[in-house]
């Protein structure tokens, strides 16, 4: 088995453990939103996005459904419902030799689900900052 | 190495070889569009969608950028530009013990890219059928 930060990422999601999240993110981590093209560079802004998402996704209907992992990348598929709208998404996570996450990219389908997430994240981020 | 249909899928994309595509799809294959929630069931409709997509993606700017493969699933990330709009997508492909593709799911980000693809695919599918 390769060492990877994915088990710890699952703990972050399960326990809303943002201290652990900070531990597993590299300082130069880049977050790629499912909505916006522009990469969000750095630990601070990545923490902001991921903690907003983690809070949103902390609903009973959320679960990871499939996972494919290799030496330095993982593809984690998830499903959830937001206000009755089905969301099917995928986290594409890359890490370095220190097992620190260097890229975190989120994809969401279908279009209706992406629009719902966009709206909810806009509200959530505005509440926090 | 596990046997998988991914090398053949790359040949399909490279050569627009829809005969080969038909060979590697299982009869019960399900296509999941990045736009629409409803799964598209069966070989005929999956061929229709994938050949429309393959034609659209047959542009100089298209390339697969990362690939993660395990025993029966692959996650293939791609990038392209459509009319100056950046599209970053991912094919999540599942196959059975006969190396026939049983599920083909497409994710696209960002929102602007998904909207552009939606519009272009609508035009392309209408042209064909």
Please characterize this protein's 3D structure:
Two copies of one chain form a homodimer. Chain A is α+β, with helices and mostly antiparallel strands and 129 residues long. In chain A, a hairpin with a 5-residue loop joins strand 5 and strand 6. In chain A, helix 1 runs antiparallel to helix 2 and helix 3 crosses helix 4. The longest helix of chain A is centred in the C-terminal third of the chain and has 18 residues. Chain A is globular and about 40 Å long. The termini of chain A are far apart.
What is the string of SSEs of chain A from the N terminus onward?
HHEEHEEEEH
- Judged by helices, strands and strand pairing, the structural class of chain A is alpha+beta
The largest contact between protein chains, plus residue counts on each side, is: A-B, 31 and 31 residues
Number of domains of chain A: 1
CA radius of gyration of chain A is 14 Å
Core attributes:
4 helices, globular, alpha+beta, 129 residues, six-stranded mixed β-sheet, Nuclear Transport Factor 2, Chain: A, homodimer
